[in-house]
């Protein structure tokens, strides 16, 4: 009998706190699988954000640090500069990376820090109860845009990946999604590439993952996946950006 | 015994460097020194000053309210610091640029055209070195020979070429009076 | 006399840190502490350490958080408005129990204030500063020599208690040049060696051990309270064992000046001036502002019945509150303070004492 599917070594045997249909569980598992496959569990250091993934360090079975809201890339910079022999990554949501942490994101990218960034874009603040994110789509309803996001008031969805792709020191930027098994497969391949880049000292790599939040989108898990495919990727096109 | 010196002039006249050189020379004689520079937006063209305390004991307060010696390089500085010198204190004036009258009559005053002397030597910015020579001679502050290693230290590699003219200016200062 | 060199307070702090094995510095420009940053930029590469000019104070303190989490001796420096921005990170450092040294070369406030020396951040430094029930250890050097010497003390305390340590100086201390002996530490403590001293809790990769996590987040009921009690216990130990002060003429003094940092030097000059006239004055100079040297003040009231105190600060009465708390109303406390650029002078203080 052949074993086809098992829990990655880098993932603890603990049920996560995520809502049904949430994308975080998928991506955190993908990270664990990639860490196992690249055989870097003993030298990887993860930096968890503030947001729904705040206790990701309870799920991963390797060294981790927390970071204040938005500061993950500053913390990761401090870690990596002191321990270049380790593989350091941040795992951040859209509020963390593209609103309160915009300066840290842009400047870590601009310095070309040899880091890997997993950027979860679900177009909403989950942990605090469904407020507008910088990546919230136009007309999308949230608790702070109850009539829908309006360009003349809240501006447009912020495409931070396209922004940092302009910076000469940035090595690799790609946007992926989780709406189907095939898409998840591509997401994993991309995440693996972003880690591989760091192992080869090739500089700043960022993977943006379009991820479902059925709870605050007011949808079923299936509807949420379809919404990514039918609506979200029109605003945030998939593929290699840099 | 504590010797308290205030040096004031325009930014760019090298008054803080002059203070640092006096402090360095004193320190090389195993005396305690403290120097407070003016700092911040006061740059070239603005005003600059420093307060230098020299003592055989640890210096308690480095801030000088009453100086023993006041070195004044331009008119606005005279105005600002004239009250900050003790009775019978020594006032060294740069007569090239200080034209205002001294209000006090209880001071020992020596005046030389430091800037004019420096211009004659080819660089108005070495006026501070002429003052240093004058000060050392007048106060019998130290063996003048000490200046050569001190200047090389301050100049470092990048400004080594400037030592020559500064030494020349210093010697010119020694020759005054 | 040992070989001495002429250094500014800012430079002495930087060199003191390097000699104490600091191998990570992140900062953001602000007057009057820029010489410290520049010194680090020049010297860090020479000792094999890391220097980063961060994009903001927020980023700088969080870089220190990251570097410290790997076990490295890490520090940052700033001046008042920048330290306000760093409070978030300092709270996280206290919460994650990371060692770190934060230098505040204080300037006038509130707001942008000015760049003149000031002691107006005493409350912020000693009462926590950021959110949550925590304390930083606060050291207040009053000379350039102390600025150098206290850096070794600061890093040792930070490591011993896994706690942030603040060096609280003012613009005058930062800018002032004094002769300074830098032979206090040997090069055996250099950055490179320190880097290899692995702390058990540090993030280094979970090779042959279970994973380490650096965090200040306690969701489960009761966990955060237990953690806070642990912190309180630590703070109590620090109060009992790490309080430092300098006392002058405490045996027979009837009037005790209480003053710290560069202000204490003016107070010292006042005391020696008045002693020449046989006035029974003395000085208590707190060296640790937190923990505050309460006991010596209490002891003084116990041994001398008719003793009184005069607090002199470059603020409008911040340390004054700690003096009053320590004395519990058992002695008269007067206050003389100026801020916003004003420094109480010897003459001013002596005149004030005469009118008491």
Main attributes?
heterotrimer, B: 177 residues, alpha/beta, Pyruvate-ferredoxin Oxidoreductase, domain 3, 6-stranded mixed beta sheet, globular, C: 356 residues, Rossmann fold, 2 domains, 8-stranded mixed beta sheet, 5-stranded mixed beta sheet, 16 strands
Could you characterize the architecture of this molecule?
- The complex is a heterotrimer of chains A (242), B (177) and C (356).
- Chain A is α/β, with parallel strands linked by helices and 242 residues long.
- Chain A is 38% helix and 17% strand.
- Chain A is built from 10 helices and 9 strands.
- In chain A, strand 7 (170-177), helix 8 and strand 8 (204-210) form a beta-alpha-beta unit.
- The longest helix of chain A has 19 residues, at 181-199.
- With 177 residues, chain B is an alpha/beta fold.
- Chain B has one domain (2-175): Pyruvate-ferredoxin Oxidoreductase, domain 3 (3-Layer(aba) Sandwich).
- Chain B contains 6 helices and 6 strands; from the N terminus they run βαβββαββαααα.
- Chain B has helices at 15-27, 75-81, 114-121, 127-139, 147-155, 163-175; strands at residues 2-10, 32-37, 47-55, 67-72, 85-94, 108-112.
- In chain B, strands 2-3-1-4-5-6 form a 6-stranded mixed sheet, with helices on both faces.
- In chain B, strand 4 (67-72), helix 2 and strand 5 (85-94) form a beta-alpha-beta unit.
- In chain B, helix 4 (127-139) crosses helix 6 and helix 5 (147-155) runs antiparallel to helix 6.
- Chain C folds into 2 domains: 4-196, Rossmann fold (3-Layer(aba) Sandwich), CATH 3.40.50; 245-354, Rossmann fold (3-Layer(aba) Sandwich), CATH 3.40.50.920.
- Chain C is built from 13 helices and 16 strands.
- In chain C, strands 2, 3, 4, 5, 6, 7, 8 and 14 form an 8-stranded mixed sheet that branches. A 5-stranded mixed sheet of chain C has the order 11-13-12-15-16, sandwiched between helices. A two-stranded antiparallel ribbon of chain C has the order 1-9.
- The longest helix of chain C is centred in the middle third of the chain and has 19 residues, at 223-241.
- The N and C termini of chain C lie far apart (42 Å).
- The relative contact order of chain C is 0.13.
